[in-house]
Amino acid sequence: MNRAAKVLLKFDSQYDLDEKKKLRDGLSAVVQIGQTLWLANDETLSLECFDCQDQAAVQKVYDNHRQFALGDLLQLPAPAISGQKFEEADIEGLAFDQAQQYLWLIGSHSLKRKQPDARKDEGENIERLSKVSSDGNRYLLARIPVVNEDGILKLVRTTSDSQRTAAQLAGQQSWSALTRALGQDEHLRGFFAIPGKDNGFDIEGLAIAGKRLFIGLRGPVLRGWAIIIEIEPEQDRGDPHTLKLARIDEEGALYRKHFIQLDGLGIRDLCVDGNDMLILAGPTMDLDGPVTVSRWINGVNTTGNTVVFREKLARVLDVPFGYRGDHAEGMTLFSTADSPGRQLLLVYDTPLGRGDNSSVEADIFEL
Predict the structure, then answer these.
(1) Residue 286 pairs with which residues in a beta bridge?
(2) Cis-peptide into 290, omega within 30 deg
(3) pLDDT, tens digit, for every residue of 346-359?
(4) Which domains does the chain have, with CATH numbers?
(5) Which residues of the chain fall short of a pLDDT of 50?
């Protein structure tokens, strides 16, 4: 699969975190809805929307940047307080439910460890490496209604007819119903106290197929095997803004596990392509590569817990990556009116040479 073209995303600088931290520099998830692209930066509490400027152009340009604050749409576990540093949501996966017109999002659900700082002395840096903490907003799994108002897509908490509402999985600042369900799992229970970048529990990737959500784990990777969790969230009868985990099989299980032989790589994103599952994979630790896209053939139609050997995977792409940057973090199926064929769009964390302070390039690959 060859790189076919590029997409230029033009950011509005008013939404940057500060003068040094640009939204373009930390893209972690992307999904196409109609002729809009929706993105997340993993250090924010918002979602970003861009409109296609010219569908026929060789280089697709997306601008008219609009920002939607999660605090206006959801009941955040750790609400932002004016004038104080907020706890990031670390959104790592976006998926669109075409049938129900919901945008789904998921946070990493992971712990974080402080990094050494070159401005500090040796003793301070050794102490920093011992500090492990959790941001409460990372424990988000939610859906938000998408509405079309005069040709412009928007996110709302409740639709005008009250038929669709924003809702999130039950939880608080240190847990969600998902981590509660997985907390005693024989494969995962030992990894919740380990920071994500240390091969601890760390979500990066979300895909939807009917009522089922597929959740990709960057970590843990077990003896070289990555993990996808499958669940079926449903609306709580007593509260339209709350979701719970439905029983997913006749035995009453709340989730399924799929073990994928990715040769030591963790999952960085997922998306459904027909009956197949596309898997973006990369290092679970803080490394530069390799990065791949694989196709789990007929993965959407799987039943029960599964073990997927590499022979059942088709290698789609070896993704280029840079030194200390240009790491592919998000992917989505992509098409325009003049190019209706199946393409794959990738966005990158810490982009190198991809635009300027107010724009960034994403890559399109032919499928």
Answers:
(1) none
(2) yes
(3) 999 988 888 887 89
(4) 3-366 (2.115.10)
(5) none
Q: Give Cα separations from 173 to 81, 87, 89, 168, 342 (angstroms).
A: 15, 10, 11, 13, 40
What CA–CA distance (Å, rounded) separates 17 from 34? 28
Q: How much of the chain, in percent, has pLDDT values that exceed 90?
A: 80
CB 40 within 8 A of CB 332: no
Give the model's pLDDT for residue 349.
Answer: 92
State residue 2's pLDDT score: 62
- For the record, the structure tokens of 272 come out as 């459904």
Tell me what pLDDT residue 283 has.
95
338 Cβ contact list (under 8 Å, min separation 6): 55, 56
Other beta carbons less than 10 A from residue 39's beta carbon:
26
Rounded CA gap, 185 and 254, in Å? 11
Instruction: Give dist(CA 347, CA 327) in Å, integer.
Output: 8
